Amino acid sequence: MRAVCVLGTGLIGGSLLRAAARAGREVWGTAASEPTAAAAVADGFDVTTDTDAALARAAEADALVVVCVPLTALEAVLRRVDAVAPTCRLTDAVSVKVPVADAVAQFAPRTRFVGGHPMAGTAESGWPAGSADLFTGAAWVVAADDGLDVEVWRDVAELAWDCGSRVVPAAVDEHDVAVARISHLPHLFAAVLASVGAGEQGDDLALALSASSFADGTRVAGTRPELVLAMCEGNRGALLAAVDDALGRLGAMRGALASTGGLAATVRSGHEARMRWASTREPLEVPVDLGAPDVFAELRELGRRGDVVEPVKR
Amino acid sequence: MRAVCVLGTGLIGGSLLRAAARAGREVWGTAASEPTAAAAVADGFDVTTDTDAALARAAEADALVVVCVPLTALEAVLRRVDAVAPTCRLTDAVSVKVPVADAVAQFAPRTRFVGGHPMAGTAESGWPAGSADLFTGAAWVVAADDGLDVEVWRDVAELAWDCGSRVVPAAVDEHDVAVARISHLPHLFAAVLASVGAGEQGDDLALALSASSFADGTRVAGTRPELVLAMCEGNRGALLAAVDDALGRLGAMRGALASTGGLAATVRSGHEARMRWASTREPLEVPVDLGAPDVFAELRELGRRGDVVEPVKR
């Protein structure tokens, strides 16, 4: 089992450190602050604030390095990787995939990089909120673009399986488009719906009459704004396209309502889409020969079908 | 206790018939079809398809007549009211209030009309789906515009209390604006979000990655399209204003995302609105002297504060 070096020990990195250790892996990590490092050490983990030392050990052990820092701290960390472990096996657990791939190409271009995104989280953050169970049953997206390093691809998938996740392969741009649609846009819709529904201060009639349609439609507007902003603003390009798709549909609906008064096209299409979502089958575990030519095209097709890669037996 | 004549015995009218009977009231009703009338009679209720006979009895008994037919059947029923019981005490349980008030002014102008809207329902419809408990704990909006008949206002409020509901007074236009914002717009947002999220047939990656933000944001898109259309299309004017408010906010958000990339204004305003909703206090039961001058202005203010009228002791 390959050793793992986790850069950043917040909710995601801290959970990964715990999960990898529980799976029997040799694992160490870095923290941005002394108190976080001390808390992790007190919990029995090998965590330091000395990023260069952690990376030197990773280069020596040929470990898989996992970047778990916020998007805003990415460049600084990648510069250290390039300086200390320039050709290491590298992955990440940052939400958006195109901006991370671009940053790696710019600041750590010699690394063997395969991006990742475990679709897991809680409302909490920081080392204390972490849990070895965070990834259990979650989808873990692994980048599947042509030209990636198949050996590192397997390293990342094995780490995901060790953490109890399902491996969903996807092209990085398709991943970013998908999360814009099913995660980032819902957060923006919830925010706008909450603002329209609440209306003016001092007039609480609408809120007094609100029922489950409003409560459900605005639930994620309760998320801490900082988390929503980091997530949505980091996926600007794909999110703009999703917003424009939504605005086009809303504009057509507005036109129909104003002219004929009819909403059937909007309502029926939305109903069909929701029914399609509700009838989404359980993902199939599909065996994939990672040595095959065109393996990444096969993996991408598998992800588009909503399926996952069958864990490889050791 | 005033007798009650219920016109229409679907989910709402059928539940009202049961609840009024349980409260000890003399109550009878009409059904649109023989099978429905037969089912209600078999359940022990006094229901006929002869609307004129039911209305003649209402005129004779000075009963409160409650219109519980769909918006599309409203004109025909009101014409019978005008022919047979032209000055009766009249209320309704149709969702939108301005279109109903307009129809009454046109087709049954001599009635003593005070509109109502019990905020209750289920996914089911028809007589068999009805229940005497449907209105328990629900908000029952009672129109509170200047110039209404105070005596009939009390009749409607007493019926709502007998059914276990809280009485929320509101001007009819303010009611329609409120439900457009907190009920009708959420249904349209859910439909558009479902359509954008599901994307093209044959690409299920986005659906496979969807989590609770998408599930919650699209839940009401699962409602039967006919119900959503009847509800939303009947409230065209107020809904257009709510849609335009939402489009304005989404457009501003789109502009900020495209220019500076910043979403803080949208996300923070939505978060504040959701927090305001979450902190909405329990409504106060406020005693109101229905004999006071300007009583309807007082009632409207009470509703805008999110409060309810204290049930009057008999």
TrEMBL record, chains A, B:
Gene3D superfamilies: 6-phosphogluconate dehydrogenase C-terminal like domain, NAD(P)-binding Rossmann-like Domain. GO terms for biological process: tyrosine biosynthetic process. The keyword Cell wall biogenesis/degradation does not apply. Residues 2-287 form the Prephenate/arogenate dehydrogenase domain. One of its GO terms (molecular function) is prephenate dehydrogenase (NADP+) activity. Keywords: Oxidoreductase. The keyword RNA-binding does not apply. Its EC number is 1.3.1.12. It holds the Pfam family PDH_N. Belongs to the prephenate/arogenate dehydrogenase family. This is Prephenate dehydrogenase. It comes from Pseudonocardia alni (Amycolata alni).
